[in-house]
C-alpha cells in the first residue's frame, strides 16, 4: 500500500518585517493557503460522499427524472433533489463551517499570518490551478488527527507570538474554543514570547534596568488582577443571582435585581454629600454645645442621644466659611468672616450639593428607566423563542460542573416560564360567570380601598396624639410609637390583600402580581403623604425655637430602622415558622412562595424614606446602603431555605421596567416635591443648621448672588444666569418639557427599532423563500436537460433498428 505523501508548506520569513507593526487593512493581500486547504478537504469529506450516495439511492427509488414534478418529495415530506443540486448544497458555506477544532485553529492561524506578513508570497488566485498543491494526492484524512492538531496548534502559537498584545488578546477572544484551550494558547504564546522578544543588550541577555522594569510591571499587573478579583468575589450577588434565577425563575430574580439597582442609586446619592459636606465639616468641626451624652445602645433605634450633634444630621453643620475662625455673632446676625481668604460657604455648599445629588439621581433614574424600557420591549415577537432557547442557549465554554449545573437549572426554568406563558388559555365565560366575576372583583376592591382608608385615618389620628403628648428628655422610647404603628399597618395590610387576591382567582399569575403591587403602592403612598403633612405642616409649627430639621431627620431614621426590623420579623415568622409548621405539624411538602409585590413595595417605601430624609440627614443613604446589603443576605438565605418556586411559573419580562417606573414617578417625584416645598417655603430653624439666619433655604443662593453683584463687574454674568435660569419659571418648564421630549423620543426610537426588527425578519423569511425558489428552478432545468439527453439517446438507439426494418420491408 502506497504511503501518503506529506504536505509541507515552506513559508519563508521575510527578514525585514519582524520589527514592523502589522496592518489589519492588508488582510485581503495575504496568502490564505490553510483556509483553502480546509475548505477543499471539507468538500471531499467521506461523510458527505456517503450522504450524497444515500440521497441518490433515495431519489432513484422514488422515481425516474422527468415525472412532471419540479421537486420530488421523500418519505418524510422533505424534498429530494438531484445529484447536481445535492453537490451544490453540500458545497454551501453553512455545510462546511465548524468541522473540527483543527479547522478552527488552522483558520485562526491563517488570520495571524495575514496580520504579520505583507506580500511575502503570491496570492493563490494568481497561480494556475495545475500548479496548486492537490489535496487528493496528499490524502490528509489518513494523517493522525492528534499529530495534525498539535502541528496546527504549534503553528498558531508561533504566529501569535509575532502579534502585539492587543491583537493577540483580540484574536484569542474571538476564537470559538473553550476557555481551557484559550488559556493554554495564551500561556504558551506569552512564555515563549518572553524568551525571544524584548530589548536585549550586547551580550544577548536582559539588562538590569529592563529586568527591574519588567518585574515592576508584572507585579503591578498581578496586584491589579488580585484587587479586581477580590472586589468581584466580595460582591454578595456574584453567584447568588444566577442561582436564584435558575431555581426560582425571572419573577423572583427581578426583586433581587431591583435591590441591586437601589444599592447603586444610594451609593451615587451618598458620594456628593460625603465629599462636599461631611468631609469638609468633619475637617472644621464647630464648637460643641455641651458635653456629649453617653452611648446607651438605644440610639441605634431612635437615632438621638450621642448621634444628635454629629455630621449625621442637619443641625451640626455651621453657617460660616470653614477656612477661618468666625467672629461671634451679635444679636443673632450671621457670622462675619475675615477679609482675605478663599471662602467655602457652608450654606451655599449644602444647597448646591443637595441639588446636584438629586439632579444626578434624576438623570440616572430616567436613563435607567428608558434603558430598561428599551430592553424589555425591543423584540417585536416571540415566535420561535422556544426553539432558540432549546438549541441556542447553552454556553459551550462552560467547563466546571457547578456552572454547568447552574446553567442547566436556568434553562429548565426558562423553558417552564415560556411554556406556561404559551399554554395560558383564557376559557370563555358565560354571562352569569362574567357577572359573578365582576361582582367578586368589585367587592375585593371595595374591601381593599376601605382597608387603605382605615390605615390612613389611623396614622393621621395617632400622629395627632403624638403631637399633643410631647416626649420628655428621658422618654425617647416613646418616639418609636409612630414608626411602630406604621410598620404594623404596612405589614398586616398586604396579607389581607393577598387573601383577597386568592378569592379573586386571577388566571394569570403576572396579573395577580401587578394587582397586588397596585394595592400596596396606594397604601404606602397614602401613608407617606400623611406623614409628610405631619412633618412639614404640624411639627414645624409645634417645634418653634427648636431644631425641627434634626427631629425630622431622626424620625425618618427611626422609620427606616423600624421598617428593616419588621422585614426581618416577617422573614422569620412569615417564612421560616410557616415552613416548620407546614412540614412538621401539617405534614405537607409545600413551602410558602416568595411574595414579590410586598417585598418590592417595601424596597420602594424604604427608598422613598431615604430621599425624603437626605436633606435633613446627609448620611441617611449610608444607612440605606447597609440596610439593603443586610436585606439582600437575609432574603437570599430565607429564599433558599424556606421558599419554593412559584407553582404557576410565568415570564417576568417587563418587571424591572415596572419597578423602575414606580420608583421614578410616585416615589422620586413625590420626594422631590416634598424637598422643593421644604427649600422654597418652610422657614428654617433659627438655632441650628447652615440656614439659621435666613427666611428660606433657597435664600442662600440669593445672598450669594447679591454678594457677587457687589464684588465687581467681572462676575456679573453669574447673577444674570441665576435670575434667568434659576429664578425664572420659564426655564423650569423648558427643562421639564425637554425631559418629557427625550422620554417621548426614546419611546419612539424603541418603536422604530421594533418595526425595523419585524421588517428584517420578514426579509429573512423572503430570502429563504427565494433560495427555495432558485433551488427548484435549478432542479427543473436539470430535469429538462436530463429528459432531452434521454430523448436523444433513445432516438440514437432507435434509428439503426428503424433503418434495418425498412431494408427488410424493401
UniProtKB/TrEMBL annotation:
<feature type="transmembrane region" description="Helical">
    <location>
        <begin position="513"/>
        <end position="536"/>
    </location>
</feature>
<feature type="transmembrane region" description="Helical">
    <location>
        <begin position="348"/>
        <end position="368"/>
    </location>
</feature>
<dbReference type="GO" id="GO:0008381">
    <property type="term" value="F:mechanosensitive monoatomic ion channel activity"/>
</dbReference>
<feature type="transmembrane region" description="Helical">
    <location>
        <begin position="556"/>
        <end position="578"/>
    </location>
</feature>
<dbReference type="GO" id="GO:0005886">
    <property type="term" value="C:plasma membrane"/>
</dbReference>
<protein>
    <recommendedName>
        <fullName>Transmembrane channel-like protein</fullName>
    </recommendedName>
</protein>
<dbReference type="GO" id="GO:0005783">
    <property type="term" value="C:endoplasmic reticulum"/>
</dbReference>
<feature type="transmembrane region" description="Helical">
    <location>
        <begin position="438"/>
        <end position="460"/>
    </location>
</feature>
<feature type="transmembrane region" description="Helical">
    <location>
        <begin position="657"/>
        <end position="680"/>
    </location>
</feature>
<keyword id="KW-0812">Transmembrane</keyword>
<keyword id="KW-0472">Membrane</keyword>
<keyword id="KW-1133">Transmembrane helix</keyword>
<feature type="region of interest" description="Disordered">
    <location>
        <begin position="1"/>
        <end position="31"/>
    </location>
</feature>
<dbReference type="Pfam" id="PF07810">
    <property type="entry name" value="TMC"/>
</dbReference>
<dbReference type="InterPro" id="IPR038900">
    <property type="entry name" value="TMC"/>
</dbReference>
<dbReference type="GO" id="GO:0005794">
    <property type="term" value="C:Golgi apparatus"/>
</dbReference>
<feature type="transmembrane region" description="Helical">
    <location>
        <begin position="480"/>
        <end position="501"/>
    </location>
</feature>
<dbReference type="GO" id="GO:0006882">
    <property type="term" value="P:intracellular zinc ion homeostasis"/>
</dbReference>
<feature type="transmembrane region" description="Helical">
    <location>
        <begin position="729"/>
        <end position="747"/>
    </location>
</feature>
<dbReference type="GO" id="GO:0050821">
    <property type="term" value="P:protein stabilization"/>
</dbReference>
<feature type="compositionally biased region" description="Acidic residues">
    <location>
        <begin position="16"/>
        <end position="27"/>
    </location>
</feature>
<feature type="domain" description="TMC">
    <location>
        <begin position="547"/>
        <end position="653"/>
    </location>
</feature>
<feature type="transmembrane region" description="Helical">
    <location>
        <begin position="212"/>
        <end position="231"/>
    </location>
</feature>
<dbReference type="InterPro" id="IPR012496">
    <property type="entry name" value="TMC_dom"/>
</dbReference>
<comment type="similarity">
    <text>Belongs to the TMC family.</text>
</comment>
<dbReference type="GO" id="GO:0031965">
    <property type="term" value="C:nuclear membrane"/>
</dbReference>
Amino acid at each position: 500500500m502506497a504511503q501518503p505523501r506529506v504536505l509541507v508548506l515552506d513559508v519563508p520569513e521575510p527578514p525585514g518585517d519582524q520589527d514592523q507593526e502589522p496592518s489589519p487593512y492588508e488582510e485581503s493581500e495575504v496568502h490564505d493557503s490553510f483556509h483553502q486547504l480546509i475548505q477543499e478537504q471539507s468538500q471531499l469529506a467521506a461523510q458527505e460522499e456517503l450522504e450524497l450516495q444515500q440521497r441518490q439511492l433515495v431519489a432513484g427509488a422514488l422515481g425516474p427524472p422527468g415525472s412532471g414534478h419540479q421537486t420530488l418529495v421523500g418519505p418524510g415530506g422533505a424534498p429530494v433533489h438531484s445529484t447536481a443540486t445535492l453537490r451544490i448544497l453540500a458545497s454551501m458555506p453553512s455545510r462546511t463551517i465548524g468541522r473540527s477544532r483543527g479547522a478552527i485553529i488552522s483558520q485562526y492561524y491563517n488570520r495571524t499570518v495575514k496580520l504579520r506578513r505583507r506580500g511575502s508570497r503570491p496570492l493563490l488566485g494568481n497561480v494556475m490551478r495545475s500548479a496548486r498543491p492537490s489535496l487528493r494526492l496528499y490524502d490528509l484524512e489518513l494523517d493522525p488527527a492528534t499529530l495534525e492538531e498539535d502541528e496546527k496548534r504549534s503553528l498558531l502559537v508561533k504566529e501569535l507570538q509575532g502579534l502585539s498584545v492587543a491583537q493577540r488578546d483580540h484574536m484569542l477572544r474571538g476564537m470559538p474554543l473553550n476557555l481551557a484551550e484559550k488559556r493554554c494558547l495564551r500561556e504558551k504564546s506569552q512564555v515563549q514570547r518572553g524568551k525571544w522578544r524584548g530589548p536585549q543588550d550586547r551580550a544577548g541577555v536582559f539588562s538590569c534596568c529592563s529586568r527591574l522594569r519588567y518585574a515592576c510591571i508584572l507585579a503591578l499587573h498581578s496586584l491589579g488582577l488580585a484587587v479586581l478579583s477580590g472586589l468581584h468575589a466580595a460582591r454578595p450577588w456574584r453567584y447568588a443571582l444566577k442561582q436564584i434565577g435558575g431555581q426560582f425563575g425571572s419573577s423572583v430574580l427581578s426583586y433581587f435585581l431591583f435591590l441591586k439597582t437601589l444599592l447603586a442609586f444610594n451609593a451615587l446619592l451618598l458620594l456628593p454629600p460625603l465629599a462636599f459636606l461631611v468631609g469638609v465639616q468633619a475637617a472644621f468641626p464647630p464648637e460643641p454645645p455641651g458635653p456629649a451624652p453617653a452611648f446607651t445602645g438605644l440610639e441605634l433605634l431612635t437615632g438621638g442621644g450621642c448621634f444628635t450633634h454629629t455630621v449625621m444630621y442637619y443641625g451640626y453643620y455651621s453657617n460660616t466659611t470653614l477656612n477661618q475662625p468666625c467672629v461671634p455673632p451679635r444679636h443673632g446676625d450671621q457670622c462675619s468672616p475675615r477679609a482675605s481668604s478663599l471662602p467655602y460657604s457652608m450654606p451655599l455648599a449644602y444647597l448646591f450639593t443637595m441639588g446636584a445629588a438629586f439632579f444626578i439621581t434624576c438623570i440616572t433614574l430616567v436613563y435607567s428607566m428608558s434603558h430598561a424600557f428599551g430592553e424589555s420591549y425591543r423584540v417585536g415577537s416571540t415566535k420561535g423563542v422556544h426553539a432558540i432557547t432549546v438549541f441556542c442557549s447553552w454556553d459551550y465554554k462552560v467547563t466546571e460542573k457547578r456552572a454547568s449545573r447552574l446553567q442547566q437549572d436556568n434553562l429548565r426554568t426558562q423553558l417552564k416560564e415560556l411554556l406556561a406563558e404559551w399554554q395560558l388559555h383564557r376559557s370563555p365565560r358565560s354571562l352569569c360567570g362574567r357577572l359573578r366575576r365582576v361582582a367578586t372583583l368589585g367587592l375585593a376592591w371595595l374591601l381593599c380601598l376601605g382597608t387603605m382608608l382605615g390605615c390612613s385615618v389611623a396614622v393621621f389620628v395617632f400622629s395627632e396624639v403624638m403631637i399633643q403628648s410631647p416626649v420628655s428628655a428621658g422618654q425617647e422610647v416613646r418616639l418609636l410609637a409612630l414608626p411602630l404603628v406604621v410598620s404594623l399597618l404596612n405589614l398586616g395590610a398586604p396579607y389581607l390583600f393577598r387573601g383577597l387576591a386568592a378569592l379573586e382567582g386571577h388566571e394569570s399569575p403576572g396579573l395577580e402580581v401587578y394587582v397586588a403591587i397596585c394595592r400596596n403602592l396606594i397604601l404606602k403612598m397614602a401613608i407617606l403623604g400623611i406623614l409628610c403633612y405631619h412633618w412639614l405642616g404640624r411639627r414645624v409649627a409645634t417645634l418653634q425655637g427648636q431644631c425641627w430639621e434634626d427631629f425630622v431627620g431622626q424620625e425618618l431614621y427611626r422609620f427606616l430602622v423600624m421598617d428593616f426590623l419588621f422585614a426581618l420579623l416577617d422573614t422569620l415568622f412569615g417564612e421560616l415558622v410557616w415552613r416548620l409548621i407546614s412540614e412538621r405539624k401539617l405534614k405537607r411538602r409545600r413551602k410558602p412562595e416568595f411574595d414579590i409585590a410586598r417585598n418590592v413595595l417595601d424596597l420602594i417605601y424604604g427608598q422613598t424614606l431615604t430621599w425624603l430624609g437626605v436633606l435633613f440627614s446627609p448620611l441617611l443613604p449610608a444607612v440605606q446602603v447597609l440596610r439593603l446589603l443586610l436585606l439582600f443576605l437575609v432574603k437570599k438565605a430565607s429564599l433558599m431555605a424556606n421558599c419554593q418556586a412559584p407553582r404557576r411559573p410565568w415570564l417576568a419580562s417587563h418587571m424591572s421596567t415596572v419597578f423602575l417606573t414606580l420608583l421614578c414617578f410616585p416615589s422620586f417625584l413625590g420626594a422631590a416635591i416634598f424637598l422643593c416645598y421644604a427649600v422654597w417655603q418652610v422657614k428654617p430653624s433659627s438655632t441650628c443648621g447652615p440656614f439659621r439666619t435666613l427666611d428660606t433655604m433657597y435664600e442662600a443662593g440669593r445672598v450669594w448672588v447679591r454678594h457677587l453683584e457687589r464684588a465687581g463687574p467681572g462676575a456679573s454674568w453669574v447673577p444674570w444666569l441665576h435670575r434667568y435660569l434659576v429664578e425664572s419659571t420659564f426655564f423650569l418648564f423648558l427643562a421639564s418639557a425637554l425631559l418629557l421630549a427625550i422620554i417621548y423620543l426614546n419611546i419612539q426610537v424603541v418603536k422604530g427599532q421594533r418595526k425595523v426588527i419585524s421588517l428584517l425578519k420578514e426579509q429573512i423569511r423572503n430570502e429563504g423563500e427565494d433560495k427555495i425558489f432558485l433551488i427548484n428552478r435549478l432542479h427543473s432545468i436539470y430535469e429538462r436537460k436530463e429528459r432531452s439527453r434521454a430523448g436523444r439517446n433513445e432516438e440514437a438507439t432507435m434509428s439503426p433498428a428503424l433503418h434495418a426494418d425498412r431494408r427488410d420491408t424493401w
